[in-house]
Amino acid sequence: MTDRQMRLSLILLVIIAGALLRLLPHPPNFAPIGAMALFSGAYLGRRPLALAAPVAALFASDLILGFYEGMIFQYAAVLFAVATGWLLLERHKGALRIGVAALASGILFFIVSNFGVWLGSGLYPRTLAGLVDCYVAAIPFFRNSLAGDLVYAAILFGGFALVQRAVPQVANPALPR
User: Is 177 part of a structural domain of the chain?
Assistant: First the structure.
């Protein structure tokens, strides 16, 4: 196995692990999906695989957990998290940048996913007041979501940084774009 293949395999393994962690019991919305997508964008760069890997991992876990209304908005939010990884972390991956990126992708996820709830659930009137009510009702879940994004980003990015230090072949950033 070449160094590139080893690095790519490890990155994909981290993304798959993120999806598997979603299957474990956890507080509502305290899940690794946002951090996993951010990690994908940061380490796989602007390649189709960076978009496909977290979407495929999310879909695989949804096959087990079940499908739900508004899934398309969740998947769109995952793609936004990948793009956040491209924009904020593709070249520099310091702790502060990772934290800012996790917060930014978490906020985008909140906006996109709850817009989907407002638009498609029938729980709220399709008015500005209904949209505001939807976002207000989602605030308790938002706290858990942001906490999950930050905790899992620290685990995924920190763990990968430790592996890169311990295994020189994995530290090679020369993945093809």
Answer: no
